Amino acid sequence: MYPAPIKPSLARSLPWIVLSISLLATFMLWKNEQRNALQGLQNKFDFLGQDISHRIEQRMLAYQQVLRGGQGLHRASKTVTRDEFHAYVESLQIEKNFPGIQSIGYVVWIPAAEKARHIAEVRREGFPDYNIHPAGERDAYMVVKYVEPFSGRNLRAFGYDHLPDPLRRAVIEQARDTGESALTEKIKLVQETDQRIQAGVIMALPIYKNGAVLDTIAQRQANFIGLVGSAFRMDDLMEGILGAGSVDVDIEIYGGTQISNEALMYDADGHRTSSAKPPHARFEATRQINILGRTWTLMTRSMPGFDAQFDARSSALVVYAGIGASILLAWLTWLLVHGQAVARLAAQQIGVSKRRLDAILDSAGEGIITMDERGVIETFNPAAERIF
User: Fold this and answer.
1) Tens digit of pLDDT at every position of the chain (388 positions)
2) Sheet holding 249-255, edge to edge
3) Dihedral angle at the C-alpha atoms of 267, 272, 276, 277, nearest 10 degrees?
4) Cβ-contact 50, 288 below 8 angstroms
5) 250 contacts 300 by C-beta, under 8 angstroms
6) Which pairing describes strands 249-255 and 224-233: parallel, antiparallel, or unpaired?
7) Crossing angle, helix 8-75 and helix 313-363, to 10 degrees?
8) b/e for 274-312, b at 16 or more Cβ within 10 A?
9) Virtual CA dihedral for 314, 318, 319, 322, nearest 10 degrees?
10) Rounded CA separation 81/72 (Å)
11) CA torsion 175→179→182→188, rounded to 10°?
12) How many whole angstroms separate alpha carbon 146 and alpha carbon 127?
């Protein structure tokens, strides 16, 4: 018995139907494999962004502890001398242990009446040309008395008065009134020259008269004598925190919550304007981090080196295997359908031949008898029946 015959039109279409369904299944498996691979890379990108945020926050807290050490140095003595401050900063080995700090300064509050005495005192220490800058008569001055390392571009900060600059004045007053560390907005450091200019920030921690009561803002203002601060050039700071620039992820840091060229403080790939950015990034994320009450916006973009980690090999393997399996399945279907058709045709031909043979036997005048190998008669024609 053979199965019910398949309609010729269906028999011709069945291999193509099988091929189409198999290719559709292959396409769906390929898309799923791509989604899985892309999600894995997305997770890696998200983790990288979180790690960068965490490292920045933790390092800035570590730099704050450096300032607390300077504050403690003052509390431990009546007057901090230049040599004592130098010894303290030198013991920190900031270039090795705290990369990214441009300088650590000891900044003193000088009323206008004390200006001449201050200048004379510093000149007696071996700096005959010392003067407060920028020049001008003011009600008070907030002057960098000590700065370490005392070399290179840091010499430009020696004797610098912070009060004329509104951004610097604001962070000094914030630190003075709160008694806590404060951070400036994006500024240009006095250490900058006309080469390789970088955005900068200053971290400040107030210093008060030893033994003073500091319970209220008024008490803190009355007993404020200066601060210890750190200056940071943002490119150097981020290189100290994150290491050398990565080809995998572009990192941008903006002061505040707005993303604009004016607020941009750091850009890992050196493209300082958005128009210079690569036209496409597979991944992009923006997150805000809090540094001493100051909001920084961190933007990360995947670069071609990171996007290249998208492993298309596994999805390509699915495609190749799926196409091969689809063709094989369609071919087997064609063989099955074709084999069934051949078998039916052979059966039909056998039936026709038997009917023809029967007709010949029936019309023959001779008696014809067939027997099996045991001698048992199987058939005989009408002539044989008449004869016997």
Assistant:
1) 445 555 555 566 777 777 788 777 777 777 777 777 777 788 888 888 898 999 999 989 989 999 999 999 988 887 889 999 999 999 988 888 888 899 999 999 999 999 999 999 999 999 999 999 999 999 999 999 999 999 999 999 999 999 999 999 999 999 999 999 999 999 999 998 877 788 999 999 999 999 899 999 999 999 999 999 999 999 888 888 887 655 588 889 999 988 888 899 998 876 555 544 555 677 888 999 999 889 999 998 887 777 776 655 556 666 677 677 777 776 776 777 666 555 565 566 666 556 666 666 666 667 677 777 887 887 777 777 777 7
2) 264-267, 249-255, 294-302, 284-291
3) 20
4) no
5) yes
6) unpaired
7) 170
8) eeeeeeebbbebeeebebbebebbbbbbbbeebeeeeee
9) 170
10) 14
11) 30
12) 12
Both tokens assigned to 153 = 């571009």
User: At 291, which helix (H) or strand (E)?
Assistant: strand 284-291
CB 98 within 8 A of CB 237: no
The answer to whether 268 and 245 have CB atoms below 8 angstroms apart is yes
Q: Which two tokens stand for residue 316?
A: 């390509």
Nearest to 226 by CA among 336, 347, 105: 105
Token pair belonging to 346: 């052979």
Tokens of 378: 């199987």
Secondary structure class of 196 (helix, strand, coil): coil
Tokens (6 digits) for 231: 């200056």
Using CA atoms, how far residue 232 sits from 60, 104, 142, 276, 287, in Å, is: 11, 9, 19, 26, 22
3-state secondary structure 31-87: HHHHHHHHHHHHHHHHHHHHHHHHHHHHHHHHHHHHHHHHHHHHHCCCCCCHHHHHH
Q: Rounded distance, CA 91 to CA 148, Å?
A: 11
Q: Using CA atoms, how far apart are residues 120 and 112, in angstroms rounded to an integer? A: 14
SS3 of residue 142 by DSSP: strand
Answer for the pair 248, 302: CB distance below 8 angstroms, yes or no. yes
Q: What pTM was estimated for this model as a whole?
A: 0.71
